[in-house]
Amino acid sequence: xxxxxxxxxxxxxxxxxxxxxxxxxxxxxxxxxxxxxxxxxxxxxxxxxxxxxxxxxxxxxxxxxxxxxxxxxxxxxxxxxxxxxxxxxxxxxxxxxxxxxxxxxxxxxxxxxxxxxxxxxxxxxxxxxxxxxxxxxxxxxxxxxxxxxxxxxxxxxxxxxxxxxxxxxxxxxxxxxxxxxxxxxxxxxxxxxxxxxxxxxxxxxxxxxxxxxxxxxxxxxxxxxxxxxxxxxxxxxxxxxxxxxxxxxxxxxxxxxxxxxxxxxxxxxxxxxxxxxxxxxxxxxxxxxxxxxxxxxxxxxxxxx
Length: 305
Known about the structure:
Helix content: 25-40%
Order of helices and strands: HEEEEHEHEHEHHHEHEHH
Number of strands: 9
Number of helices: 10
Low-confidence stretches: 1-44
Mean pLDDT: 87
Strand content: 15-25%
Radius of gyration: 18 Å
Strand order of the largest sheet: 1-9-8-7-6-4-5-3-2
């Protein structure tokens, strides 16, 4: 079905579609595919040559990981409640060798991971606030222009950043991301609110970051934030702003992703001017972890083109 969707979108938009079918998984600390519509994460937090740093960004002290020593910048934006290490270890390890002229920056967004206290407040504009903070961080690191690579919630932040600061974003890569929240997705979010129904394997990585008692509260607050956008904005996160994105954009998609409805893929392709698509037919939500080698090569090729 996704093959047909990708071909149809290509025909409508005049895009070159590259569908990659891959079966091997890279052996990193995170290997588990999505289960019960929630991704698993690892708490491994080391990589040769990577440095952990902190900078004051607005009212927050932001923790980030820096790898590579090039003069071009790329920032990795994690998913909901995610951190640099839980969400991007394979990219922190693998991308610098593929992008020798880049510095790879992976952050804990304000209110997440080591960028606390305080915890994040999930107001209707929390994606906009994260985008502004990411922009400020990159400027403080000396990057006036840079590329953005965002997963899930981080992809939404990337879309907002590229739309709000089109002159600063050179290239944009997003996957598992959406610019609006449908009724179906609102039901998905409500259905995964109760973390006690998750398997221990799914809960434990986040419990290690936030604590057994606090993680359910913060996760529930995230669900409330998305439902607030669904109700108060009629689900519109940044749909109306996509037309302002100037950066060449690569949408990577796992055809079996249970966290977003398939409609988001053609919607992004039709509403962002210069967009390409790469589909993993067997991929789920965490394709960058499940197929890390292939994913890193795809991203590097796009950023270097």
